[in-house]
Design goal:
Number of domains: 2
Order of helices and strands: HHEEEEEEEHEEEHEEEEEEEEEE
Number of strands: 20
Number of helices: 4
CATH topology of the largest domain: Lipocalin
Largest sheet: 11 strands, antiparallel
Strand content: 35-45%
CATH class of the largest domain: Mainly Beta
Shape: elongated
CATH architecture of the largest domain: Beta Barrel
Distance between the termini: 36 Å
Helix content: 10-25%
Radius of gyration: 23 Å
Structural class: mainly beta
């Protein structure tokens, strides 16, 4: 919903600016220019004959302004070159803005390899290839603590109530101790949660915002380094245990994210309690 609102706000601004151009600049444009008349080019830059993640978008349609939605961002330029974090046959949506209104056309661009650097968070979460990256509870022995609570803004993992990996067979029987979560970048940001038998339990998109940090109780160092959102699913055992009704959690504070480890947290409604999830990459 947030993305849709942003798109409409951006389009409204562009339409307003376009309609305010001097009349002589728009002379001969007529009404709306249909999508069938758009002259567009979209293609990926080849590197060693491999389709890279750098994409060129070009609108050569006379009298038509541009709004491009390329999945991980937007552009209002007539011609732009962007770097995307996704693999596969990527959909690119072009909205042409003319004197009479707008029309939309979708195209696809193939990306076979992430050649140009993107925000490292994409790769830390989802890896570098089409297989994505699969996470599991962070345990070697089933008795290892993987979930629990502690002081929000103070603790960086379970400190009070401490739940073992083995307890997830009871606490979260749908997924269990050996469940997994896979983040991948095939055409878009995908999240898939599976149980220990490999059956899919939930799927969703995902997003992150590494500007949304929270200071620790000392007011100097960061407690969280960003925020992860999974709008249509949750991580394993993704509930807020002490909130009324134990609601499903979709937004998590990222306390730690490396090539091999991820620690997530939430702050309970009471403001002083945190709940913590500890995951590692499945090898």
């Amino acid at each position: 919903m947030k993305k849709i609102t942003l798109i409409y706000s951006f389009l409204f601004s562009l339409i307003f600016m376009f309609s305010c151009d001097p009349i002589e600049d728009r002379e001969g444009m007529g009404g709306i220019v249909p999508a069938s008349d758009f002259k567009l080019e979209t293609y990926s830059i080849l590197v060693d004959n491999v389709a890279s993640n750098k994409i060129v978008m070009k609108n050569s349609t006379f009298g038509v302004g541009s709004f491009w939605d390329y999945g991980s961002g937007f552009s209002s330029r007539q011609q732009d070159t962007v770097i995307v974090p996704f693999l596969g046959n990527l959909p690119i949506t072009f909205t042409g803005i003319s004197n009479g209104g707008t029309d939309t056309k979708s195209q696809t661009v193939q990306v076979d390899k992430i050649v140009f650097p993107v925000d490292e968070t994409w790769n830390l979460l989802a890896g570098y290839d089409a297989n994505g990256k699969t996470w599991m509870w962070d345990f070697i022995d089933p008795g290892n603590v993987v979930f629990g609570n502690g002081a929000a803004l103070v603790n960086y993992g379970p400190a009070w109530a401490q739940n073992s990996a083995a307890s997830m067979d009871t606490n979260d029987p749908t997924v269990g101790m050996n469940g997994t979560m896979t983040f991948d970048l095939n055409m878009k940001a995908n999240f898939t949660k599976k149980n220990g038998s490999g059956s899919v339990v939930e799927t969703s998109s995902f997003s992150f915002d590494m500007t949304k940090t929270i200071l620790s109780a000392d007011g100097v160092t960061d407690w969280s380094i960003g925020q992860l959102n999974i709008p249509d699913a949750s991580v394993m055992h993704g509930i807020s245990p002490n909130a009324p009704g134990q609601p499903i959690v979709h937004t998590y504070e990222i306390l730690k994210l490396t090539e091999d480890e991820m620690v997530l947290a939430i702050i309970s409604p009471n403001g002083w309690e945190g709940w913590y999830w500890k995951f590692k990459v499945k090898r």
